[in-house]
Amino acid sequence: MIRISRFCVTLALAIVAAALSPAAAAQTPPSAIGIVVMHGKGGSPAKFVSDLASGLEQKGILVANIEMPWSGRRDYDVSVSVAEKEIQSAFEGLRGKGAKKLFVAGHSQGGLFALYYGSAHPVNGIIAIAPGGSVNSPVYREKLGESVERARKLVAEGKGEEKTRFMDYEGSRGVYPITTTPAAYLSWFDPDGAMNQMKAHKAMSPQMPVLYIVPKNDYPGLLRVKQMMFDALPKNPLTRLYEPDSSHLEAPSASREEIARWAAEVAASVAR
Fold first, then answer.
1. pLDDT per residue over 131-145, tens digit each?
2. Residue 16 falls within a domain, yes or no?
3. Which of 30, 223, 246, 260 has a CA positioned 20 to 30 A from the CA of residue 139?
């Protein structure tokens, strides 16, 4: 005859109760979290964001690390609206693998585009890693104003789909040439368009949580506007400012643990 102690019975009942509790039911397994990751300007999925993507995957999170139109290879080959469809396609792929809670993440210019995308499309959260490149800033207006006006003129003349040489700008590189169509160029560089960061913040729903990451050793210009940009986000109890001890380029790798933790927190909140 097998005797079961009172302690064992009590322990077993406690385990069952814990498993059936609302808090446990609200937990979202990592395999149900899907994150689209976007690299920075001139980059690629293999540069700077690769450690982030692989680190999240090691935790069981589903990841789509995709090449964006601002990569070093693509040269803004499509418009903003087409880029949005590329992200939507990546999300469909993640859903097909079992993702239930979807997040859009990006580094540098990818971080800014993540803010724009999340202001216009339904996702469960936005992860903006050292976002930069707002085309409404004084430096972009000064450096690229002539190219923007030429693109406007060509579009008005019906030449919006003819490949043309324009200029792009990045703080570490200065001004440099790119070749794309006037229509595509204008969709990216119009100061009042998609890459205007403050406009993206204002268009965002208060229900949208944001993990806003600014590394302690970020570029000086981004550090100067850090608090202003964070404060401009709609108030949400799950929105966080995270400041890893890293440089701009190291920020994705330095934020892996916090991104995984925060995504799980948001996913659990949505599940309740």
1. 999 999 999 999 999
2. no
3. 246
